[in-house]
Specification:
The chain is mainly α. It has helices spanning about 15-35, 55-75; strands spanning about 45-50, 55.
Length: about 90
């Protein structure tokens, strides 16, 4: 798929509450695995990257925590709907 030059051709619906909660759960799992140094850790060691850049565990944890804060705020912005029903008999 070619790179996009702008976002004019991109569309989609807002994330649902369930989708945001799923993203948060995945981030929490990634954080837990990273901290436990598990085999599913998102990044175990420093890895060289393009132009001499490197990713490390601390940087990855920082990025995961930033993402978690973002999605937590997004979840707080979801509209709250409270429905109440009443059963009135004559």
């Amino acid at each position: 798929m070619p790179d996009l030059e702008d976002l004019s051709s991109v569309n989609g619906a807002d994330l649902t509450e369930a989708q945001i909660k799923g993203i948060l759960a995945q981030i929490d799992l990634d954080i837990t695995n990273l901290l436990r140094d598990g085999k599913l850790a998102a990044l175990k060691y420093s890895l060289p990257g393009d132009a001499g850049r490197a990713g490390d565990r601390a940087a990855n944890l920082h990025a995961l925590l930033d993402a978690r804060r973002y999605y937590s705020e997004l979840l707080k912005q979801q509209p709250a709907i409270h429905a109440a029903t009443a059963n009135f008999e004559d």
